[in-house]
Design brief:
The complex is a heterodimer of chains A (173) and B (213).
Chain A lengths: L1 E3 L4 E8 L3 E3 L2 E15 L4 E13 L2 E3 L2 E9 L4 E3 L2 E2 L2 E4 L4 E7 L33 H11 E4 L25
Parallel strand pairs in A: 1-3, 2-4, 3-4, 4-5, 5-6, 5-7, 6-8, 7-9, 7-10, 8-11, 9-11
Antiparallel strand pairs in A: 2-12
Chain B lengths: L1 H20 L6 E4 L3 H8 L6 E4 L5 H11 L2 E4 L2 H10 L6 H8 L7 E7 L7 H14 E12 L4 E12 L2 E13 L5 H7 L4 E7 L4 E7 L1
Parallel strand pairs in B: 2-3, 2-4, 4-5
Antiparallel strand pairs in B: 1-7, 5-9, 6-7, 8-9
Classes of the chains: A mainly beta (173), B alpha/beta (213).
Amino acid sequence: MVNIGKSVVIKGELSGSEDLTIEGQVEGRIELKQNVLTIGPNGRIKAEIFAKAIVVQGEVHGNITASERADIRDNGSVDGDLSAPRIAIADGAHFRGSIDMQRAGVKPTVEHKGPEGKSSETKPSETRPSEVKASEMKASEHRAVDVKPAAPPQSLGTAPASVSQTTISPPVR
Amino acid sequence: MAELFNWSGRRGEDAAAGSASSPGASEALTTSKVFPRFIAALAPRPAPVLVDLGPVIGANISYFGEHLACKLYVEDLFAELEALHRRGAANTASTALVSRLRHADESIDGILCWDLFDFLDRPTGRAVAGRLFRMLKPGGAVHGMFGTTAIELKHYTRFVVEGAGSLRQRPYPATKVKRTVLLTGEINKMFEGLKVAESVLLKTSTRETLFRK
């Protein structure tokens, strides 16, 4: 598990093979094709994103492609096109762009827990990182996440807030 | 625990904002006679392209995915309009909204246009309607809802599709504006070039219209 703290700014290409939580700013491209990407409440992303699953609690400007699932929480904001076989968008989330529902023979159905419901499917608290010192974080990122061009990490990692929400998730046909 | 408090606090703020900004606004379930025909008009089309001019609704995405397997564009012109109001730039709505709709001419199969024109002055309404007409493919459909009572609007509405003929209306705060009430003839003229396939006045005093190109 890797966490990018809220004072960290990355410009370039970011890829890796571990689940990643971003609380800082990333501009460019993010590729975590086998892992879960969580954009925390403080995360500000201007990038093309490719991940196995993505949870958005912050802001994303750019297209998102998830091979399994995309989940926009009620504080989440996405301006861009969304492509995933399963899409969950909470009431109150902001979204502008296109949603492609033609892929992989998906026939979504509604799993709706009402406006007061709490999602139990994706738990951002699961992505809570332990605190990482800047010097340690660099080593950690080397192991798990490639950042091109390299951007020096500047801050301690921070834990993402867990936001319970209404979740509507279309299952696979 | 703190996370739980954050969540509760935010919901509390929302509830306070909602009650302050839109007193009397509450959820309602509308039985739609025209919406099933809109879906039926698009269903035979392979992978239709749909534009929703309102806010994103998770349940609707699921519904359209299931019934139409479509590509859906969420434009949320209400958010654009609200931002203009807050900047004191509502007089630029015509340009802002039309330029927001960048879809190629004749590229869209269906358009959901629920309540939007209630919030637009007539020149802006005409400009937006003209853009929608150009976006629509031949044979395409527009499902419109238009208020018929001249009241001050204090909230926008999220329309949640609960079934072929059921739309749940969930209000959320808006900058106060006086509703633009369009007569049936005005609506038809605004969408000149489209045929009125069905037009129904609901018990809620909302006119529901299905246009076809």
